[in-house]
Design a protein that fits this description.
Strand order of the largest sheet: 16-15-14-13-7-12-11-8-17
Number of domains: 2
CATH superfamily of the largest domain: Dihydrodipicolinate Reductase, domain 2
Distance between the termini: 48 Å
Radius of gyration: 24 Å
Shape: globular
Largest sheet: 9 strands, mixed
Structural class: alpha/beta
Number of strands: 17
Number of helices: 16
Oligomer: single chain
CATH class of the largest domain: Alpha Beta
Length: about 500
């Protein structure tokens, strides 16, 4: 679908997200000729700068994030010609006159306001856009996380932004939903007849969803210490992945049809009580250790760290969904920093065969692995006969590597999501009721931790997290996938 002419306004246009992700993604789509010839990108910052000074910043801070193989001098020049700069203070309505001067006053022109700013600025930005007459029926607003710290603040953000934009104009972005493998999970489930009869409690033993990072907090301690792993990763990325795995088939791939089914999953998550919460949630914090053979400090020893911080850098949760399809199937979610590896994957483990006719049957169950990063692909573990005399079975892996199978250039998550924003497609973006339902489920965990006033369980950097996380899944006679892999 062709994209209509637009003005894209980047609040936080000189910030890290814009330089590392958004501008390189827009360049990539310009290179692919997805952007209309007259489309413009207006980047906003607080400092007074000429356009030439801003282009120099883009050359220094953004261009290095474009893969060298994709750099084309003529395309880069064309892309830079789209860029404008204006000095705007989000809290000063008078300064929005500079933005108005930078925008075209063309009837029906799509104006996309991308708020790559702290959420504390969302309300004042939207109010000043409205007062300045910049919001039109063709306008859209993109909200970056964090979308609240709890249910009350999430509702407040929804209400504040909703005063000036209709729900159909609001794009709450979660970049994990733009990943190729997540799209392929939808295709796998709803484009094939093979898995749907098995996609239920009768045949699935458990589901594991992991987002692990080798990195620590880096220079983001101030932000991370007020957020933590639960708010930063589980409330949004992990729950959205859970929804796609568990939702019922929507009536179509339209935005509200898909989001209606995701909302049903969130509302069907079994709520925690103080007793079940203590048994089914693990909260950890990394201490000193080694990652890839390099010594790294503990969380409380990071630069500018709070030596008494109780912020979690790891969380593991056993979730259950109260529906006919999923009753009794545990969903294990975990995320952490300074882990043994950097990966994001979904593991759907099937039940063992009810009766084995083979004397040397390996008891490894079939499982489907959807790898999101670092390499995107699908892996199906099956049992096959080992070559040689006798009937000995061993696990084998059927693998689909998307890069090997499909030779066409690949879009990263922000490229895809930005295209959807420009086209007005809402399917991959959270609706307000989805956001609030996720917070409703997560908030009791936060409240329990606040009341406990206990330190997180320590784990060594470079490991797979606290021993308590292995015990969490071990109580059900199961193992995390990397613990269950046979040694080579």
């Amino acid at each position: 679908m062709a994209i209509s002419d637009f003005d894209l306004v980047l609040f936080g246009g000189t910030g890290d997200l814009s330089m590392r992700k958004l501008l390189p993604a827009l360049y990539a789509r310009d290179r692919a000729r997805d952007l209309p010839p007259e489309a413009r990108i207006v980047c906003l910052g607080r400092d007074e700068k000429t356009r030439e000074e801003f282009i120099q910043i883009v050359e220094k801070d953004s261009k290095p994030h474009v893969p060298a193989a994709n750099l084309d001098k003529a395309v880069w020049e064309r892309f830079c010609n789209r860029l404008q700069y204006a000095s705007v203070n989000a809290k000063d309505g008078a300064s929005f006159v500079h933005l108005k001067e930078a925008l075209r006053d063309t009837e029906g022109l799509a104006r996309v306001f991308y708020l790559a700013t702290p959420p504390s600025l969302f309300a004042s930005i939207c109010e000043n856009l409205s007062k300045g007459g910049l919001v039109t029926p063709a306008s859209r607003v993109v909200l970056e996380k964090p979308l609240g710290r709890d249910l009350a603040s999430a509702r407040d953000i929804n209400a504040q932004v909703g005063r000036y934009f209709q729900e159909s104009q609001i794009f709450r972005i979660d970049h994990y939903l733009g990943k190729e493998a997540v799209q392929n999970l939808l295709a796998l489930r709803f484009g094939n007849v093979l898995f749907e009869p098995l996609w239920r409690r009768e045949w699935i033993s458990d589901v594991q969803i992991t987002i692990a990072e080798e990195l620590g907090v880096g220079g983001r301690f101030d932000y991370y210490d007020t957020s933590g792993a639960l708010r930063d990763m589980l409330q949004n990325h992990l729950l959205q992945l859970l929804c796609i795995v568990a939702m019922e088939p929507p009536v179509s791939n339209s935005a509200d049809a898909v989001r209606d089914e995701k909302l049903k999953v969130l509302r069907s998550l079994k709520r925690f009580t103080p007793t079940t919460l203590a048994m089914n949630v693990v909260r950890g914090q990394y201490r000193a250790g080694h990652v890839n053979g390099v010594a790294v400090p503990g969380y409380r020893k990071e630069a500018d760290a709070n030596p008494d911080s109780r912020t979690e850098t790891y969380v593991a949760v056993k979730a259950e969904i109260d529906t006919w399809r999923w009753a009794g199937v545990p969903f294990y979610l975990r995320t952490g920093k300074r882990m043994a590896d950097s990966l994001a994957e979904i593991v759907v483990r099937f039940k063992s065969v009810p009766h084995s006719i083979f004397a040397h049957q390996n008891d490894t169950p079939n499982c489907l692995v959807i790898r999101l990063q670092p390499d995107e692909g699908l892996h199906m573990n099956l049992m096959a006969k080992q070559p040689g005399d006798g009937m000995r079975l061993r696990p084998v892996e059927l693998e689909l590597d998307f890069r090997e199978k499909f030779k066409t250039p690949r879009m990263d998550a922000y490229e895809r999501l930005l295209l959807d924003v420009l086209r007005g497609h809402l399917t991959l973006f959270m609706r307000s009721d989805e956001l609030e339902a996720a917070w409703e489920w997560v908030e009791p965990i936060l409240n329990h931790w606040d009341q406990q006033e206990a330190d997180p369980v320590p784990y060594n950097a470079g490991t797979w997290g606290p021993a308590a996380a292995s015990a969490l899944i071990g109580r059900d006679g199961l193992q995390w996938r990397e613990e269950a892999l046979p040694e080579v």
